[in-house]
Structures are given as C-alpha cells and as structure tokens.
Design goal:
By secondary structure, the protein is an alpha/beta fold. The chain contains twelve helices and twelve strands. The protein folds into two domains: 113 residues, Rossmann fold; 178 residues, 3-Layer(aba) Sandwich (Rossmann fold). The longest helix has 19 residues.
C-alpha cells in the first residue's frame, strides 16, 4: 500500500524525521532546488504538510493553491501565524498545533528572562568574566528587584497562566490584558493596554502573533510603562514595535527589556545588540530536549491521525475536526 505524500517546509528534529518517513512519502522543501517544478509534478499528490515558524516558509494562498489534495497541516509550535488560516479553512484543511506540552517550559524561561533582565544577571557575569571584580574588589552595582514590582501579563492564555502561577509564588502582584475578562479569574483585568502599562511597571507579552497584534506594544505603551518599566517579550517579535523599543531603551523612557523573540529572526537588527539595558535570548523559550521532543511527537501524532483517519489530537479552534 502506498504512503500518502507529505511536504515538510523545512528541516525537523530527528525523531520527527524517523516517524514521518515511516508513515509518509516525505518531500523536504528545503532540499528541492526547483520548487515550481516540484509543485507542478508532486504538488497535486500532497495530502499533508509539516511546518513551523523555524522553517521561515509561509503556507500561504500561493502554496495552498498548488496543493489541491491537501487535508492536514501539522504545525510544530503553538503559534501558527505562518499559515494562512482563512484560506486553509476555506479549502477544508485541518490545522493542528502543539499546545500545552510547552506551557511550563516557556513559563520557566519567561521568569528566568525576567530575573536576568531586572537583576542584570547577564551583565554581572560579563563584568566578572572580564576581570572587573578581581580588579576592583568592589561589588557589582546594586540592581533593581522584583520585590517592589507589579506585573501586567499581555495575554492570559495557557502559558500566561503558567507564568502567573510562578509569579504568585514570588509574591508579585499580577494584572492581565485581553479582549475580555475571563470568568473565575480574580486578577485585575484591562482591555486597554495603555491603562495597564500606566498601573504596572513590568509587562510580559505572551500572546499570538499576526496582524491583530502587530506592534501592539508601541511607543505609547512604552511611554505609559515609564522610566522604571521593564518589558519582557515571549510572544512573537511582531508584537513589539522594535524601533520604538530601541528609542525607549536608549532615552530612558523605560528601564530595561528582555527579548526571546524578534522581528526578523534569526537575522535580527544588529543595532539591538548594542543596547546595554536589553537582555536577549535566541528564541529558546521552549528549547529543551524534553519539551521539544514532546512537541515533535505531538506534531507527528496529529499527522498520523490523518493517515489512520482518526481525529487529530489538537486541531486549532479555527479549523475544528468534522471528519476527513
């Protein structure tokens, strides 16, 4: 019995490769030199796509129109803004992602990045490695603290709640921003991000990317956050207006920022790396062996569910499963 054809938009981790090649006739887009010729000849047979933001390939209307037999897209990651969701929905394609399995890891990283940024831990390490402690016999300059801070979570979904649980253990007051208040959540709620930024001194962004949230954190929000303000972005790079952030950091309009995500990953604006009160990480929020393995297996489980004509485990809300 022939295997259904699957297109991977880029390289995937070894455990995914093994499982996909066992179940599908896999074609690797990153290895194909003439993509137009491939889509002309093999495109009509492709029934499944494996993709992820790390491949830097958009599954847009131009691609979807070349894949008339497509039934399922397995997205490696929670965010699926690299997929044209309305077009996929119109064509009856089920999109799946990997929620929940990365919540705790990303929350751990968010709190770690917050501590690194507020307590200047990276800068203190560089100061020590450069021999300044030995040379001066002085303490590293005292830093700000979490002890007198209040945090506004920009987005309060699964990961936002996991971050919130950790911050509660730190004794840090928490508020959240969203489109509407959530039932049974006793925290202060804001549907006006500027208003929340005025009332807190720390923002942690953890919400989807895409046009609806592009540049949500802009110059006005940063101005409202104020000179003691700290911004942490664990969401998507597009959520933050990077030029406005650079201006705010350099001018002292905010105190510091920590970014795990950027506008043009991995070729980020090199000017960002010259800003001393900016802490940067190379999009490692969920990047542990344990969690990425969970994500990889769930991505492939969803694809194999299609092959076996079983319901997918985690279809996204816009494309609920109604049968293959």
């Amino acid at each position: 019995m022939s295997k259904p054809a699957l297109l991977s938009t880029g390289p995937m981790m070894p455990l995914m490769v093994t499982r996909m090649e066992d179940a599908f006739e896999v074609h690797w887009l990153n290895e194909i030199k003439d993509r137009d010729a491939f889509l002309d000849t093999v495109g009509p047979r492709i029934e499944a796509i494996c993709t992820g933001a790390h491949t830097a390939v958009r599954t847009d209307v131009a691609m979807l129109s070349r894949l008339p037999a497509l039934k399922v897209i397995g997205n490696y990651g929670v965010g699926y803004d690299s997929i044209d969701v309305p077009e996929a929905k119109k064509r009856g394609v089920i999109i799946t992602n990997t929620p929940d399995v990365l919540n705790e890891e990303v929350a751990d990283t968010a709190v770690g990045l917050l501590l690194m940024t507020v307590r200047e831990l990276s800068r203190a390490e560089v100061w020590m490695r450069n021999g300044q402690w030995a040379a001066t016999a002085a303490d590293y300059p005292y830093t700000p603290s979490l002890r007198d801070r209040s945090v506004g979570l920009v987005g309060y979904g699964r990961i936002g709640k996991a971050i919130g649980r950790r911050l509660e253990a730190f004794g840090v007051p928490i508020s959240y921003f969203g489109r509407k208040a959530q039932a049974d959540v006793p925290l202060p709620f804001y549907d006006d991000l500027v208003a929340m930024a005025e009332d807190v001194d720390t923002l942690i962004a953890i919400l989807p990317g895409g046009p609806a949230t592009q540049n949500l954190i802009n110059a006005q929000v940063l101005e409202a956050l104020g000179p003691q303000g700290v911004l942490i972005n664990m969401a998507r790079g597009t959520v933050v207006d990077e030029p406005a952030l650079k201006t705010a950091l350099r001018s002292g309009k905010i105190l510091a920022a920590g970014l795990d995500v950027f506008w043009n990953e991995p070729r980020i604006d090199p000017d960002l790396l010259t800003i001393p009160n900016l802490t940067v990480l190379p999009h490692v929020g969920s990047g542990s062996i344990y969690t990425r393995s969970k994500m990889g297996n769930l991505t492939v489980d969803n694809l194999i569910a299609y092959k076996e004509r079983k319901p997918p485990m985690t279809p996204v809300p816009e494309t609920p499963f109604k049968g293959w």
